[in-house]
Amino acid sequence: MNPFEDAEPEDDDPEDAEPEDGEPEDGEPEDGEPEDPDGPDPLLVPPQRCSTTRPTVHLVVEVVLAPGLHVPVAARLRYRADEPYTVHLDNHVDLPEPVTWALSRDVLLAGLTRPAGLGDMSVTPGHGPDRGHVLLSLHGEEADALLRVPAHALHAFLRRTECVVPVGCERDHVDLDALVRRLLDEGEDEDGDGDGGGAGDGG
């Protein structure tokens, strides 16, 4: 029994008055509209300010070996304000040498709702048995991978990155001097590897 069922309003404040017939109360859905138990659509809620410039989340992704055959692996998503276009995905974080992929944030965002990306990286929303996941197809110089990523976890993480760097404001966060230095350092490393052989060539 509801103890408030027979309670009368304390005053005649018009704000507390009951709505007329056919007029829904504030916050109640119109007739025919299902209530959303999870609250408002997160796509319609603007990102809030984030307390960190390097959001990180641990999750489990699945490596797709064949249709219906998936192997779960421990993974981590990372983002940095000084690399605003890139999301890093570390696979096998429980091993001494995780496998790291550099992913386009724009492609990940687009791939939540429609197929996106070409070449080295493509993202597709899952359907049927893959519903609730995002299929991430990756092609690198040394390895390829097809991953099933939980769509909710990926979406929540990408929203956190938007708190750090809103979409469209990436240029304001790029450190061009640091980028040039890093590219020069990588070029010098490649020249050195060419003289002495690549790492891991030994038996």
UniProtKB/TrEMBL annotation:
Belongs to the SsgA family. Its main location: other. It holds the Pfam family SsgA. It comes from Kitasatospora phosalacinea. It is found in: Cell septum. GO terms for biological process: division septum assembly; sporulation resulting in formation of a cellular spore. InterPro entries: SsgB, SsgB_sf. This is Sporulation and cell division protein SsgA. Residues 1-50 are annotated as: Disordered.
